Structures are given as C-alpha cells and as structure tokens.
Amino acid sequence: MAWINFLKPKNQLEEGGRSGVPIQEDAGEPEKKCPNCHKNIPLSRLWADNLVCSCGYHFRMKARQRIRMLADKGSFRELYGQMEAGNPLDFPGYTDKVETVRAASGEREAVICGTAKIQGQSLCLFVMESYFMMGSMGSAVGEKITSLFEYAARHRLAVVGFTVSGGARMQEGLLSLMQMAKISAAVKRHGDAGLLYISVLTDPTTGGVTASFAMEGDIILAEPGATVGFAGKRVIEQTTRKSLPKEFQKSEFVLEHGFIDAIIARPNQRKLLAELLKIHDGGRTNEWSGL
Amino acid sequence: MSGAAYDRVKIARGGGRPTGRDYIKNIFRGFIELHGDRRCGDDPAIVGGIARLGGSPVTVIAIEKGHTAAERVARNFGAPNPEGYRKALRLMKQAEKFGRPVVCFVDTSGASCTIGAEERGQGQAIAENLMEMSTLCVPIISILIGEGGSGGALALAVADRVWMLQNAVYSVISPEGCASILWKDSSMAAAAADSLKLTAEDAKSLGVIERILPESDIGQKEYYDRIGTLLMRELKELSADPDLVAGRYDRFRRIGRKQVKEKP
Fold it and tell me: Which of A26, A66, A249, B173 is the most exposed place for a label (fewest CB within 10 A)?
C-alpha cells in the first residue's frame, strides 16, 4: 500500500532541485543546467520558452505561470481560491509544514481552479502546483476540484486539468483517500452530462491522482518525459527486487501501453487544446451534419 | 502514543482470520464463481460471482488473501492486479443489468505494485472503478474485513454503505510507508498508525463508514448469520430507495468538506 510516492519536503522547496528553477539571481546572466543535454541555458531564455530546453526537456512549471501560458490574456478568473486545508487529524507537524509551504510557494493549496478562455473558447481549468507539497491531494484539493466539475456541469463547460502529484496527502489520512472517490463521482456526473474533460499529465503524476481523475479524461494528454504511474519506482523495486528500465513510467511508456491519447510538448498545447475545445463546441456534444 | 492503533493493524494483518471466501461460503448460498476480466486475464486475488442471500440473488466480490502459504502466493497475498479490478467492474455491471445488489468484501494491503501491474494500467483500472461505481444503479455494500489498503481497497468500496470489522483498518498509506516517508524510520510505524486515524472507530467518526461490526465471535456460525441478517435488512432498504445513486454521490461529496477552511 506504500504506493504514495511523496518526495522529500526539501525537494519541494529547494531552488534548482532536480528540475526546479532557481529564482535567486547572481551577478551576470544566471543560467540553469539542463539535466538532459547538460547545456547551460540562460534563465531569461528558459522563461521565454516556458521552461522548455532547446533539447526538448520540460522543466517543472509553477501553476500560475502555466495558466499565463495557456489562457487568453486576462481571461482567468480564480474560483475557490479561499479554500485551504486544516489539520483534521491533528497530524503531528502538519500545520507547521503547510504554513512553511504556503510561505515558500505563495499558494494556499496544491491546486488552482478557475474559469478561463483559450483562443476564445470558455472552459473550466485546474492546474495542480508541484511547489505545494508536490501537488499532494488532501480535502481542500478534493473539494476545489469537485466544486469545479460541479460548476462546469452547471454552466455546461468543458474542464481541462493539469495534474502533477505525488498522490494522496497522508497527513489527512482517510479524508485524502476519499477525495479520490469524491472527485471521480463529480467527473462522472460532468461526463454523463455530455461534457468534455481533458486531463494533461505533467511530471510527476502518480499515486492516488493517477488512480482517479488523471486517468478519467475523455482525452488524456501528457507532457514529454513526464513520470506517470500508480506505484512509486522505489516501492516497485522493493516489492519486485528488480531494477527498472529508464523509460519505465515515462509518458512515452504509458502511451505505448495504451493508457494516454497523445504526448504534447508545451509550445503546442494551447493550439491543440483550443482545437479540441472547438471540436467539442466548448464542452457540448455537436450534432453532426457533415457540413 | 499508545500504540493501540498499531495493535489493530497487526490483528487485521494476522493469519487465522476468515478471508474473503470464508465470508462468501458462510453468508451466502449456492455461490457460482465467475472468472476473468474479458480483457486479458483472471486475477486470483479477487473472487467474484453470483450467490443467494436469503432467497434473492446478489453479486458477491471478495479480495482473497488465502490461508496456506501456497494459497497466499497463488493469490498474490491479496494484492489485486488491474485485471482483478476490471473483473470486479464487469461483475458489477452485470449485476446492474440484472438488477441485483452488490456486496464486496475488502481485505488488501494495497493494489499490486509490480512492473506488470503498471504496464497493464493499475491506476486506470482503479480510476475506472471509482467512476463507474459512483453511478451504478443497484445497491452496493462494502465490508472491510481486514486491511483496507488505500486506492486498492477503495476501488471496491465506492458503496452506499461501508462497514468495518472492529479490528479492520482503513488507511491512505501503510503505517510503515508513512513512517519511512515522514520520519525516514519505519520503526516509527506505531506512531504513524496512531496519527493516521485508521481504526474502525476513527473511520466512523470521520464519516467514512456507517457501521462497526463486532467480532468477538469471529468465524462462528452466529457471527456470519448476524452479518447476513444485517446485509439482508440493509439491502432491502437500499433497494427501495428511489434516490440511491444521488445518495451515494452525497455520501462521498460531504467527506472532507467541513474540514476545509475558507479564509478571505
């Protein structure tokens, strides 16, 4: 059951971690080394290219930066931004941890929800935040995403959701686990109303998020090279005592096994999402006339 | 730290407890096992089929850990693979088609964590069960009889009523896993078990389950008869509920809601 692949707390916050981007600037043009091609990239260029290296490597991206990249300028209206986790189980250290993360990330919770437009098409959008406890899913994340699907069903809108998560948030115990069922039920209702849901899996999407709404899209997309899986690699290695191939649980691997529709690089996402939204008429199912 | 919760974990995991098939055999009559997911295989960790409860047909699905060493290996220690969850969903859809209720017995330390399980879409299989069970048009009752290990347990527990044996546990992560992640020390498992609030009493006070089943006479005839009677009464009531599916939605919808703070 130890499939929840939480990353160490320090990794969530440290700047310039495995694929974090340093914010502190030294004298001269600050650079960031690409873990794939090992070239140094000037930070200004990296930011301009939405954190994609010229070799194609996708660095992790903060949720609000992603929203700026995707949504028509000025179109994003945040919903449920006031919701945040309590410490319902009085879990030791949780309150302090959340406060530290809030201060460091500038976010209240591990997902940002709202309405937006992409090339004029209205939609509901949620983007999970890797810089907030690696997108871990507790009651507030569950409540926000569930409320968004209900809002989308009421207003007959499509939902596009970007996932990044280590899984359910263990500090909220069973309440976190139940969010998987709660969100899934809301996704089902939204889908049964004939509305479109596109999930886009980013690095990493694992555990209880993979085993619920990440895998429930009508169309499931993923960024190149993203880790997508249920059990954590370490858990699998411990269970099976086998070392895992490098490409295991990468989005290319998941595509090959038939569990996602396509891999889409960041520069092409906005255009593809706009086209998919148009095809589905902003979420409604069209009457096909052939004209 | 009392360690009381970890004692429950040990009882829930302990050998000698009745397993899924014991419940099927002793509560229901004339069980007909149905195999296979119609996709790629048959998972021995999940047993399912049709049986009678009182005079009426029900679909019964149980995670089976096995009793003997050989059987435990053959059943993958009750860790289901994707084809197990897909078989369970197939049988639930079949139950829906023919209008019979579903009873699930849950007992797993978690879904199988192997390369093969990942290749065959463990996450997708669980996700699909969560989604499809939420709108199944027949009553579902799930009983946690031992370990309720995370998503692998929840995939058979999106039900109208969820009951737990007194010494069963239900948790988002194993106490050992939690301790090793949080404190880098799996010997802190007892402390983690306390913090995770994974006992039947905890689950009930969190609103995650409706009923705790006493087990002082576990394995005796009276024990099984009592569960059978409860199931019959509850299924009859649920079968008459015109708002069954809406009620199931609301049951999960409210979990965690009041724990979320709203700050301006």
Answer: A26
Q: Which chain B residues are Cβ-neighbours of A222 within 8 angstroms? A: none
Percent of chain B, pLDDT > 70?
99
Q: What is the CATH number of the domain that holds B90?
A: 3.90.226.10
The answer to whether residue B260 sits within a structural domain is no
* Owner of token pair 């290296």: A53
Secondary structure (DSSP) of A171-231: GGHHHHHHHHHHHHHHHHHHHHTT--EEEEEEEEE-HHHHTTGGGG-SEEEE-TT-BB-SS
Complex-level ipTM: 0.97
Provide the domain limits for residue B163: 4-248
Confidence of residue B19 (pLDDT cuts 50, 70, 90): very high
| Residue whose entry in the numeric block shows the structure tokens 């023919």 | B98
Return the pLDDT at B14: 86
Of A2-6, A36-40, B57-61, B94-98, give the lowest mean pLDDT range: A2-6
Q: Which residues of A touch B203 (CB under 8 A)?
A: 174
Whether B264 sits inside 8 A of A82 (CB atoms) is yes
Q: Does B57 touch chain A (CB under 8 A)?
A: no
Can you give the residue ranges of every domain in chain A?
A: 60-283
The percent of residues above 70 in pLDDT, for chain A, comes to 87
Report CB contact under 8 Å: B261, A83. yes
Cα B82–Cα B78–Cα A142 angle in degrees, nearest 5: 60
Residue B223 touches chain A, beta carbons under 8 Å: no
Q: Does 3.90.226.10 match the CATH number of domain A60-283?
A: yes
- pLDDT tens, residue by residue, B177-204: 999 888 888 789 999 999 999 999 999 9
State the total domains in chain B: 1
| Distance set, CA A200 to CA A226, B177, B224 (Å) | 10, 28, 47
A-interface mutation test, from B259, B262, B263, most A Cβ less than 10 A away: B259
Whole-number pLDDT of residue A27 = 58
Pick from A178, A113, A126: nearest CA to B257: A178
> Given CB atoms, is B146 within the 8 Å cutoff of chain A?
no
Nearest CA in chain A to B252: A182
Q: Of B43, B139, B50, which is closest to residue B91 (Cα–Cα)?
A: B50
Q: Confirm if A235 and A242 have CB atoms less than 8 A apart.
A: no
B114 lies within 8 A of chain A by CB: yes
Reported as a pLDDT band with limits 50, 70 and 90, residue A13 is very low
Residue A18's pLDDT is: 45
> Is there a cis peptide before residue B80, judged by omega within 30 degrees of 0?
no
Is B122 part of the contact surface with chain A (CB cutoff 8 Å)?
A: yes
